[in-house]
Amino acid sequence: MFTTATAQTTKPLKRLAVHATTTCAEQAxxxxxxxxxxxxxxxxxxxxAEFDKFGRCLREAVRVQLSILILFPQYSSICLR
Amino acid sequence: MxxxxxxxxxxxxxxxxxxxxxxxxxxSGPSPSLTTHTLGPFxxxxxxxxxxxKDQAAYKNGGDSSRTVDYMRDEVAxxxxxxxxxxxxxxxxxxxxxxxxxxxxxLLDPNTTQKCxxxxxxxxxxxxxxxxxxxxDVERIHADEENLLQVLEPNxxxxxxxxxxxxxxxxxxxxxxxxxxALQPDGLFLGAMFGGxxxxxxxxxxxxxEVDREGGISPRVSPMTDTRDVSNLLxxxxxxxxxxxxxxxxxxxxxxxxxxxxxxxxxxxxxxIGRRHMIHRDTLAAASAIYKELHGNQDGTIPATxxxxxxxxxxxxPTQPKPLQKGxxxxxxxxxx
Lengths: 81, 337
Fold this sequence. Notes:
The complex is a heterodimer.
Chain A: H1 2-9, H2 12-23, H3 25-38, H4 48-71, H5 76-79
Helix pairs in contact in A: 2-4, 3-4
Chain B: H1 6-28, H2 47-59, H3 64-68, H4 71-85, E1 91-97, E2 113-120, H5 123-126, E3 137-142, E4 157-163, H6 172-182, E5 183-194, H7 200-214, H8 229-237, E6 240-253, H9 256-265, H10 281-295, E7 302-314, H11 333-336
């Protein structure tokens, strides 16, 4: 049971899902509110600044997680919740 | 007043003659389709992809993933059973069209029918569960739901039921016509399909994300049958004594990601012809954020709406009750009210 759960969370898309909803929830919310404020007239890159912050947080989160994994593989179960 | 030179007039006439010829060609042939390799009714869904998705879903983790997401089909099957129990008739055989793993067949008991024939285009889903899980005799036929009359004789069936399968059929008027053909006179059709506003939250979140991130949209969620059209479709197929009603089921998910995982495990991933096969990670992350802000619940979860259209129709028979002639009423409504 434990091994399957870990195997699933190491999938790249699963990692993205975890970070988009937990680690970077704050930036996601700011971006979502920006779209919410303009959703009757959405154009390309209308919330670019907000998304850039969100995207940066996501990339950062993935990178940090990966480096911890490489340095301390014994913590993988904590890291890959 | 402008005088048009005769040469340009001539050219204009030539052009008109040409367009007319094209119009005549397209109206006499089968209805046009977006894709060149298909003929006949408008093709919206890629049936081969859909079959593959359902097989994959049913085989994943030995069927356990698929069983985890049975909640939707089991719920709708339960609601179909409520309607079936209202019909005071005992059947010898019922056809479960697009049965999946037999969610509806499992609820049937020997008081309703002796035997049930499950028909599905996905072999994996059809054979997922063993016979011991069913209370009635089951027969499984692996066949395309779109070509029902290839496996059933006309005028042969007492009842055909369908639980959440018809929303992947390209030619809905055609399949309803085939169902009516396959039924005996006074035979029953009872079906449920997704339609109307199903998954509108996911549709809008993905569209907004795609517009903002990529500057355009593509079909991510199937076009749905309008609930108001269903009774017309049933009438057109030749059913009588119609009953159509709509149930809305709202499911709360932790986030858009779990919703998409569950849809995939149900075998309900996108199978629209001409869809884009990949989705950018940025677009997905953006959609997840938009979904939550635009539609999210107070408690941090997100809702997904499923609108289920229930339809009941009977094949006409002389023995059925019919409305009286107009003007034949003897009692004045004024005296009653």
